[in-house]
Design a protein that fits this description.
- By secondary structure, the chain is an alpha/beta fold.
- Helices cover 52% and strands 18% of the residues.
- It is built from 13 helices and 12 strands.
- The strands form 2 sheets. Strands 1, 4, 5, 6, 7, 8, 9, 10, 11 and 12 form a 10-stranded mixed sheet that branches. It has a two-stranded antiparallel ribbon with strand order 2-3.
- Strand 2 and strand 3 form a beta hairpin.
- Helix 6 packs across helix 7 and helix 6 runs antiparallel to helix 8.
């Protein structure tokens, strides 16, 4: 009899605590992250807004919405200053130490946004390839080679062929001109060695010049190829030495740190980062693909920004709940699962250009 009494008392206390936890006015933090949370003046809409309102209505939850930037929202949730975050938070082991997560309602991944280069920038990049250290070094050696053989030709021809290889500084210029014309196979014929020594020197110039020009051509091609590879966007690792940006305290921020990206600019929100990207203050912006895609598509000022066909760092979105609120997390998770099984959930996703898991 006593045992049945204690069991009944336990369930009664459990029910009262559960009701108390769900009936208190919840402080719900959010930051705009279209298409999940879209804010126009004081009007809120989006996938997560719809989902939260549906959950709160079904569970009869009282709540108050509070807007804050992303980093402050996470800190407030960790400290218990807010009860819920309805942003699409990525479930991670590190975050799970300081907050609870509801059941995941959407899976996503990170991607990279870049700004298209203008015609001037493309021409500048191409011309810059010719000032690569390898090209400049090869060009300087070529001048030395031409001057060397031109001076030798002048020394051997100045007495036996003074009409074409004049004395003094003018003769040195004649020798340089002859070596350039000979090496480039232009063949003007205005100057040519007549002595045996001069012809041997010409033979040496043609052989060594042929080999050297082949090497110089390879150097120019290498310079252009290296420059092209440095600006390549075929792999995530190619951005490690570039200036990249992301939202502070986001999952993308953690990804960049763990993968040793060197030059990372952190922003309080998505829009300031994309603005700097469009102005070429950074080379790329790395963040969640559906949020980037929606913002770029809807904002006319970001027409020069494009998404690369890259998918990495898979993420599972969920609502965040303050730590040790297991009962609240369980009832919300259960309702989210039930809503996801309805056709209405698929319709809501499609309205914002997304598909189901």
């Amino acid at each position: 009899m006593k045992r049945r009494y204690f069991v009944l008392l336990f369930f009664l206390i459990f029910h009262v605590l559960s009701a108390q936890e769900t009936k208190d006015t919840l402080i719900v933090g959010y930051t705009p992250a279209a298409p999940f949370i879209i804010q126009e003046n004081e009007f809120l809409e989006g996938i997560n807004v719809w989902l939260w309102k549906r959950v709160a209505e079904d569970l009869d939850l009282d709540y108050k919405m509070v807007q804050m930037d992303f980093a402050n929202m996470l800190d407030s949730l960790k400290l218990g200053a807010i009860d819920v975050s309805i942003n699409p938070l990525t479930i991670t082991g590190e975050r799970s130490k300081t907050m609870e997560f509801t059941h995941s309602f959407y899976a996503s991944h990170s991607t990279i946004a870049i700004a298209e280069k203008s015609s001037f920038q493309k021409v500048k990049q191409f011309l810059g390839s010719f000032f690569h250290i390898n090209f400049l070094r090869g060009f300087l050696l070529l001048l030395v080679l031409l001057l060397f053989f031109g001076s030798l030709a002048w020394l051997t021809e100045r007495k036996g062929n003074p009409e074409e290889f004049r004395p003094g500084l003018k003769g040195i210029w004649d020798g340089l001109w002859w070596s350039i014309v000979t090496l480039t196979t232009v063949g003007y014929g205005d100057k040519a060695p007549k002595t045996r020594s001069g012809k041997v020197i010409a033979f040496g110039l043609m052989l060594s010049g042929l080999l050297f020009v082949s090497g110089l051509t390879a150097s120019i091609a290498s310079s252009l190829t290296v420059n092209q590879l440095e600006s390549s966007s075929d792999d995530v690792n190619s951005f490690k030495k570039k200036r990249v940006g992301t939202v502070k305290s986001s999952e993308a921020d953690a990804f960049l740190k763990s993968h040793f990206f060197r030059d990372v600019s952190l922003y309080k929100g998505l829009v300031p980062g994309l603005r700097d990207l469009s102005k070429h203050k950074i080379d790329a912006f790395i963040y969640d693909e559906p949020i980037l895609q929606y913002r770029i598509r809807k904002d006319p000022s970001l027409r020069q920004v494009e998404l690369l066909p890259m998918k990495f760092d898979v993420q599972f979105y969920a609502f965040g709940i303050k730590k040790d609120s297991m009962l609240l997390e369980q009832v919300i998770s259960q309702r989210i699962l039930e809503i996801m099984e309805t056709q209405e959930w698929g319709i809501v996703l499609s309205e914002y250009g997304l598909t189901e898991l």
